Amino acid sequence: DVPDTLSHLLAFVLVLLGAHPLGLFFPKYFRLPLITGYLVAGILSGPFLANLLNEDVVGILGSYVNAFALSFISFQAGQEIYLPELRPQIKSIVALLATYYCTAMALGTTVFMLAAGVSFYSGLVHRCQLGIELMFASISVLVSPSTVMGLKVELNSVGPFTHVALGTCMTAEFVVLVSFSVSRVVASIYCAKLAREHRLHHGHRAHEPRARSAARTRDDPHLPAAERPA
């Protein structure tokens, strides 16, 4: 519907215009980055508070806004990565990424294992639960490139620490993709095996009443021989 789409676009533009001065308010009075104000503006205008951007607006424009934002963030991050500057920091990037990945995976898997009793996968076998927990833990390794790039651009930061942070953030994206893919394969193997056994078990249980009914009919002395099952 064209009028509804135009009204949704107008609401989105008005929220964008209002988010900019609100974003400037936080660095001036609270010494917080601009992105904090933008996050607060999004929370206030979202469907759970002011409802300026209701669920229909989020559903219609969300995918397009995410696609454009990811494109600009990826382009800006790729523009900032300069291999001659990163080469002296490769050892630091690898060490930081390995420490962060192992810590996040260990803590994430432990937390989800402890919470398995109240989760949707509480009734599954342990191997299937482990695959699901590894997927959740892999997602927890993610680092937001938008936050890193926003702070870098706002502060105009340069130097070894900036190169290490940016290199770790961008490399973590690749590591998370590989880790999540492996965890998904593990979960698919054991959970698919469990689902197959579950279907066989229920099929056998559904067949038992029919077999008992046929046996009773066959042994019924009052039933004519022509109507008895073979």
TrEMBL record:
Gene3D superfamilies: 1.20.1530.20. Residues 202-230 are annotated as: Disordered. One of its GO terms (molecular function) is antiporter activity. Keywords: Membrane, Transmembrane, Transmembrane helix. InterPro entries: Cation/H_exchanger_TM, Na+/solute_symporter_sf. Coiled coil: none annotated. GO terms for cellular component: membrane. The lineage of its organism: Eukaryota, Sar, Stramenopiles, Oomycota, Peronosporomycetes. Residues 23-186 form the Cation/H+ exchanger transmembrane domain. One of its GO terms (biological process) is proton transmembrane transport. It comes from Phytophthora fragariae. This is Cation/H+ exchanger transmembrane domain-containing protein. Residues 206-222 have a biased composition (Basic and acidic residues). It holds the Pfam family Na_H_Exchanger. It is found in: Membrane. The chain crosses the membrane at residues 6-25, 32-53, 93-118, 130-151, 171-192. It is a multi-pass membrane protein. It comes from the Eukaryota.
